Amino acid sequence: MKKFKTLEEAQIELIELLEQEGEFRGTLNELADRLNVKPENIRPLLQLLKSSGDVLYEESEEGLIVRPAMMVPVVPPTLTPEQEQEVQQKLKEGYKVIACSTMGGVQSRELRSALGKRVIVYFRNGSKVEAKLKGFDRFCLKLRNYMGNMLAYKHAISTIVYKP
Questions:
Q1: Cβ-proximal residues to 98 (8 Å cutoff; 6+ apart), any chain
Q2: Residue closest to 49 by CA, chosen among 5, 112, 95
Q3: pTM
Q4: What per-residue confidence (pLDDT) applies to 2?
Q5: How many CB atoms lie within 10 A of CB 136?
Q6: Strand order in 64-68's β-sheet?
Q7: What are 23-48's pLDDT values in tens digits?
Q8: Contact between residue 27 and residue 43 where contact means Cβ atoms under 8 Å apart
Q9: Locate the Sm domain: which residues (predicted)?
């Protein structure tokens, strides 16, 4: 009996496939075989990745075209000198950069790996928040700390770091 991958494993594998090959062209069944998932799980997988801003896809009579979504930062990253120094110090201490405004489509994979962990979010206005990452979507992060739940919009964030 064939063992199928979980939806989360398939998401990561599809993103890696697109990073290597640039795009996928073929049928739903070919993509299902390539990712080792059930064919009926391909559409929900693509819709999930589209809603998170990772991929764009077109489905026609000829087949399926899946491409990585190009995320071009509108505003350049702006860390204050103090924040830049603090981020560099955190990196030396073993922290990992999850996202910054120059990382593009890699964000979702890194954010998934940090779900449930404590993160430090540096905002463009110079402030920062230390909290646990509870969830995210294409536009915002859900954070929780001693003050309660918070919603932080990604366009206001400069950099996010966490300790793996």
A1: 107, 110, 111, 113, 114, 119, 160, 161, 162
A2: 112
A3: 0.47
A4: 56
A5: 21
A6: 24-26, 64-68, 55-59
A7: 888 888 898 888 888 888 888 888 87
A8: no
A9: 106-164
The pair of structure tokens assigned to 38 is: 């059930």
Residue recorded with tokens 């199928």:
4
Give the CA distances from residue 34 to residues 7, 17, 18, 61, 90, in Å, rounded to whole numbers and listed in that order.
14, 9, 12, 20, 39
Amino acid at 30: E
The letter for the amino acid at 102 is T
Q: Are strands 128-136 and 118-123 parallel, antiparallel or unpaired?
A: antiparallel
Look up residue 93 and give its amino acid. Answer: E
| Whole-number Cα distances in Å, 19 to 15, 118, 155 | 6, 28, 24
Closest of 75, 91, 136, 70 to residue 109, by C-alpha: 136
Q: In the chain, what are the domains?
A: 7-68 (1.10.10.10), 81-162 (2.30.30.100)
Take residue 142 and report the two structure tokens written for it.
Answer: 């859900």
Neighbouring residues of 130: CB distance < 8 A, sequence distance ≥ 6: 118, 119, 120, 121, 145
- Residue carrying structure tokens 């992060």: 141
Q: With beta carbons less than 8 A apart as the criterion, state whether 30 and 80 touch.
A: no
